[in-house]
Write a structure and sequence with these properties.
By secondary structure, the chain is α/β, with parallel strands linked by helices. The chain has two domains: about 190 residues, Rossmann fold, CATH 3.40.50; about 140 residues, N-(1-d-carboxylethyl)-l-norvaline Dehydrogenase, domain 2 (Orthogonal Bundle). It has an eight-stranded mixed β-sheet with strand order 5-4-3-6-7-8-9-10, sandwiched between helices. It has a two-stranded antiparallel ribbon with strand order 1-2. The protein is globular, with a radius of gyration of 20 Å.
Length: about 350
């Protein structure tokens, strides 16, 4: 098959995978799947980016300096990318997921497993990404999986070792996806706690924004460690209230992802928070970011969900106030200071 994006070579007997979204994570996961032995087609919205990936084996916009597998193919024509796919991995901004799925609903192979690589909650519906996929594609829960964990894209693209969690209500589905997403530098574990796995990925972004804010203000390691620790409590309380398992939040999809996202300058949410802490407005931060910081979009729907279950989330609430311009970034950690109240139990 030939087009302006190059030539796709199909290898007989090799599993075919499609990845929708050629940002840093979509491209990195395409590399993971290719390195794992699959025949991978990557959809890029911009023809020039698809051409660079297909022909130059580079994505200079999102993964500068990284060489992509020779077998990885890309196109801006989504029909070509989805043709014959046994698994479809979706990596688009969370708030555009529904529109993107509506555009491809009729051309996704009906038997394909759909895998969410996204970490967000849809504004307006407060649905998790797997719920949007199930609703928009009318997909069986056993056909849907999610992937989360301490997975900073550039580090994985550079083949620095790490691990992920693949979750599906159907353990066999999770296992099939984990086997496809396995290389010498990435190990995938499995569970059936989709709720806990997804909410871990969503909520750690919000705590990472808070960490970025206090970092931008100039606070030190004590403040950050306290926010990370108390943030994990908020994450766990929230996830459990919605049916997730506490042990999931103590694992790779919770604590592991939280540490990586809060501590790395590669984290978009940490970067966004740091800019807020330095005094930039929400509008200015969005304008400066060349990739989506999912945490910024998820604050409002997460707080709606927390209120519905009477879950207290002081850190996330303060992030919302900073975003709204009603709180000075220097005041983001008042819950850590003594105000005369009786001491509270830690857990």
């Amino acid at each position: 098959m030939t087009n302006t994006s190059g030539i796709r070579v199909t290898r007989p007997g090799v599993r075919r995978m499609a990845v929708l979204g050629a940002g840093s994570w979509g491209t990195t996961f395409s590399k993971v799947l290719s390195d794992g032995g699959a025949d991978v087609a990557l959809w890029a919205r911009r023809p020039e980016l698809a051409r660079e990936i297909a022909e130059g084996k580079r994505n200079s916009d999102y993964l500068p300096g990284v060489n992509l597998p020779r077998t990885l193919w890309a196109s801006s024509v989504v029909e070509e990318v989805l043709e014959g796919a046994e698994m479809v991995f979706v990596s688009v901004p969370s708030q555009t997921l529904r529109a993107n799925l509506a555009a491809v609903r009729d051309i996704i192979p009906r038997t394909a497993i759909i895998v969410s690589l996204m970490k967000g909650v849809e504004r307006g519906t407060a649905l998790r990404m797997s719920e949007v996929i199930r609703e928009e594609l009318n997909a069986d829960p056993a056909q849907v999986a999610v992937i989360s964990g301490p997975n900073l894209a550039l580090e994985i693209a550079k083949e620095e070792p790490t691990a992920s969690v693949v979750s599906s209500e159907n353990l066999e589905t999770a296992t099939l996806v984990a086997m496809a997403a396995r290389t010498r530098y990435l190990r995938s574990f499995v569970n059936t706690d989709v709720i806990g796995t997804e909410f871990g990925g969503v909520l750690k972004n919000l705590i990472a924004v808070a960490i970025g804010i206090v970092d931008g203000v100039g606070y030190g390691e004590n403040t950050k460690a306290s926010i990370i620790t108390r943030g994990l409590v908020e994450m766990t309380d929230f996830a459990v209230a919605y049916g997730g398992k506490a042990e999931t939040l103590a694992g790779l999809a919770g604590l592991g992802d939280l540490i990586a996202t809060c501590e790395s300058s590669l984290s978009r949410n940490n970067t966004a928070g740091r800019l807020l802490g330095q005094g930039y407005s929400f509008t200015d931060v969005v304008a400066q970011m060349n990739q989506t910081a999912e945490g910024l979009a998820s604050v409002a729907p997460v707080l709606e969900l927390a209120m519905a279950k009477n879950v207290e989330m002081p850190i996330v609430s303060q992030v919302a106030e900073v975003l709204a311009g009603t709180m000075n970034p220097r005041d983001i950690a008042p819950h850590l200071t003594s105000d005369g109240d009786e001491p509270q139990p830690e857990n």
